[in-house]
């Protein structure tokens, strides 16, 4: 999401009106799922995607129409055979897509700048847009940014509309746990509530050849990337200019001391030796990480597992580790191995 917010901010700073299309809900078989986004400028340049093909073409036409009027709209797309003829496929699902138009202003630049900072800090937030008009036809919006755990946010910005206390309390009580926009009705008013989800994190233990290539893949696939190594020559900004964080540790025994690993974290173990891999794996399996993968042959894996079993770690716990790591695509080079690893992580992430 951070990269998408940066793109919106760039358009605002360049003074270019644009539209943002977001899938609010998907039903049945669809090319993209809820939360997918696309920015479209008046010259038909786009960033992101809501599915490609005829689906995206129809959304683009709607964006252009609404840009001319500076209005917003929620559209419904039924992906039946008639619609699918132009796509050379039959999806059989349906999509609800909200299209919002943006005219650059200092207030919007300030709002999205603040949002970008929250995302960089790894803090969760909500975009709250009050609907001016009828949500079932064309409307306009007034936007507010509500950081989580900040109940005074509604009182700090006189440039924007007030958020009702009931809505603010609902946000702070985590009543909007999803990742896509929803409509919230409060009396006669309607609001679009959009959770701003933090990007999933990949923790790469080892900044060698495979770690270097994997960090590049992780950036392309929109993961926050953290590289950990005990060698500064392998964990530095010259080698990894685009990762979110670098940690040079004295010893891998302390590699997890300052890491915030949760259920949206993915751990990849690529250190320079079997002993270090074992140390990292022993700590990793005590976390809530969604994925733990360790490079190496089955012989190496079995030796490390045997050592850990002697230390009281169950075979059942170890069986959840992906080792040998990566999808079986006969990869050989560091880049090919990185592709197999990121492919396996994406497979896990998508369920």
Instruction: Count the DSSP helices.
Output: 10
C-alpha Rg (nearest Å): 23 Å
Which residues form runs of ≥5 with pLDDT under 50?
82-90, 150-161
Mean pLDDT: 89
Distance between the termini: 20 Å
The neighbouring-strand order within the major sheet is: 3-2-1-5-4
Q: Quickly name the level 1 CATH class of the largest domain.
A: Alpha Beta
Output the CATH topology of the largest domain. Answer: Rossmann fold
Total domain modules: 3
Order of helices and strands: HEEEHEHEHEEHEEEHEEEHEHHH
Structural class: alpha/beta
Strand content: 25-35%
Structure explained in plain terms:
This protein has 351 residues and is α/β, with parallel strands linked by helices. The protein has 3 domains: 17-102, no CATH class; 106-196, no CATH class; 201-349, Rossmann fold. Helices cover 32% and strands 25% of the residues. The protein is built from 10 helices and 14 strands. It has helices at 2-13, 53-69, 81-84, 106-120, 165-172, 209-220, 274-284, 298-310, 315-318, 334-349; strands at residues 18-27, 37-41, 46-48, 73-78, 94-102, 125-133, 139-147, 182-186, 189-196, 201-205, 224-229, 245-248, 265-269, 291-294. A 5-stranded antiparallel beta sheet has the order 3-2-1-5-4, sandwiched between helices. Strands 12-11-10-13-14 form a 5-stranded parallel beta sheet, with helices on both faces. A hairpin with a 4-residue loop joins strand 2 (37-41) and strand 3. Helix 6 crosses helix 10 (334-349) and helix 7 crosses helix 8 (298-310). The protein starts with a helix and ends with a helix. Residues 82-90 and 150-161 have low confidence and may be disordered.
